[in-house]
Design goal:
The chain has 197 residues and is of the alpha+beta class. The protein folds into 2 domains: 1-77; 104-191, hypothetical protein PF0899 fold (2-Layer Sandwich), CATH 3.30.2320. It is built from 4 helices and 4 strands; from the N terminus they run ααβαβββα. The protein has helices spanning 2-102, 107-122, 139-146, 176-191, and strands at 127-131, 150-152, 160-165, 170-175. It has a 4-stranded mixed β-sheet. The N and C termini lie far apart (109 Å).
Length: 197
């Protein structure tokens, strides 16, 4: 019997060893599958998180860019307003100086030269000289010097003169108003206050 018990013991040990080996293999396979599934779930979760993060990051970047654009627009408006204030102040000062100059003794010489240059520019023929209403006191002197009719212009010309050749239908604007308009157009470029849009 002892032989049978030994055989049973050996048989039992063999079965137990085989069972343990098989159990270890099943456990190893289970752990491998578990690890693979965990990696897959982790990878999918990471992808989902990255997608959500990317979407949120994109939203944040878009919101930041919108805020930057709004701030840039506010800054540009402030800059334009400041530029307009500077331009207005400069031209107000220029007009004050022109007003002072028109009251000086040198102004009549300037006016004569403005008329002479404009008259020469329109060429030979019948001419009409237009002056500002504030220069009405010079009308008789200008008619005497140039022998052409002098008319008070309906619009303010701030000094200088406009001469019209009625034969050739040519006009030369040699007025301070015209020069101021030209200077205003060039002011932004020359002053360095031009703003690129």
């Amino acid at each position: 019997m002892s032989n049978i018990n030994e055989k049973l013991s050996v048989f039992e040990k063999t079965i137990m060893d085989d069972a343990k080996k098989e159990a270890d293999e099943i456990l190893a396979e289970f752990e491998a599958k578990k690890s693979k599934i965990a990696s897959k779930i982790k990878l999918e979760a990471q992808k989902e998180a990255n997608s959500v993060l990317g979407s949120e990051k994109e939203k944040l970047l878009r919101a930041e860019n919108e805020k930057i654009s709004e701030e840039a627009a506010v800054y540009k408006r402030e800059l334009l307003n400041t530029r307009r204030e500077i331009e207005n102040k400069v031209f107000e000062e220029v007009e004050e100086k022109i007003s002072e100059f028109r009251k000086s003794e040198k102004y009549f010489d300037f006016l004569k030269k403005a008329v002479a240059d404009a008259a020469e520019s329109v060429g030979e023929g019948e001419k009409i000289i237009y002056i500002d209403k504030k220069d009405a006191e010079f009308k008789p002197l200008l008619e005497e010097i140039f022998s052409y009719p002098v008319v008070i212009a309906s619009a303010e010309i701030k000094g200088g003169a406009r001469v019209s050749n009625t034969d050739k239908n040519i006009v030369c604007d040699n007025t301070v108003s015209d020069r101021l308009l030209e200077e205003k157009d060039a002011f932004l470029e020359l002053s360095g206050l031009k703003i690129e849009v």
